[in-house]
Amino acid sequence: MTGIGIVWLVHARTGSYAAAGLVTGGFAVADAVAGPQIGRLVDRFGQARVLYCVLSAHAGAMGLLLAGTVPDVVAGVLVGATLPQIGALSAARWSALLSGERAAALPTAFALEALVNGVSYMAGPALVSVLGAAGRPGAGVLLAAALVVGGGLTLAAQRRTVPPIAGRAERRHAGRALFRSAFLRQVALGLALGVFFGAMQVSVAAYAVGHGTPDVAALLYFASNCSNLVGGWAYGAGSHGGSPRRRQAAAAAVLTLSSGPLIFLDAPLAVGATLALTGLAVPVLLILASVLTESSVPRAVLTQAFTWGNSASAAGIAGAAAVAGRVVDTGGAHAGFGVAAGAAVVMTVLALSGLQDPSPDLPKSSAHLMG
Fold it and tell me: Which tens digit of pLDDT belongs to each residue from 27-36?
């Protein structure tokens, strides 16, 4: 909501999409860079203390953006640098709550997170766009800020679910885990998934416009988003026995096989059905990335680990949008779909390479139960 709101606001002020894109790009880069640093502070000082400080700074940055008292690009960078990654904080709380004998329920909790995110990604951007189209772009940015600050304060107030803070020595030793291949592989998968998202966004829009039916883009996005919800719900409701790494490899392979036909399919109905198939695999990949991140690093750096995955995905989206735009200009929408399919192939290769990893597949919170 924040990124789209910035596009509407800056374009309304300047009449330039180039200026809006520059500010939004600054916001996205600052968010991706600052997110893990905020996560590190959270692991050191606790969620509540850091959230109160970051949310205050975020509210101030939003005020500067709305007031226009500083250059828009400066305000956009400040907004991104102070945006707390609430999803990572929530995932860390689930990990702390569902430990020991309850660890088997962790994939279901991450599936619930994926469902909530899916609903927000469907409703939020649409609401901001409606406000922008109605001539009230500032209201969209203000609403996004209110949700971030209000939701963050509500989370900070839930003291009973706050993960415990690790000691300094434990954090120092745990920090080395962020360089383990098992964790870096999940970050790389997040980056590739971001590339997939970014390329798909550009390519679907280009496909609809190229066929002279720009309104079809909304229907295609809707088909993909609905199947996202179905895939997340189905995975969360099912059993989670077996190896998460094998499931991740299978989901990546399904995404590759389902996205490949988009390179040559031309009929809108066929494209919509194929996009729906890709949407079924995406939430499974997101859920398993959370599960495998949780199992690959100690709890002392878990929040930071989750934010690195989110930042990698955001960086992939931003970079792919620019690259896919050039590819689409040269080779059309089907070439853009090729970029997305290539990202899916990379995910499959990364996931398959993880099958050789010797570290345990079970969440670390339940590993001690195995003796």
Answer: 888 988 899 9
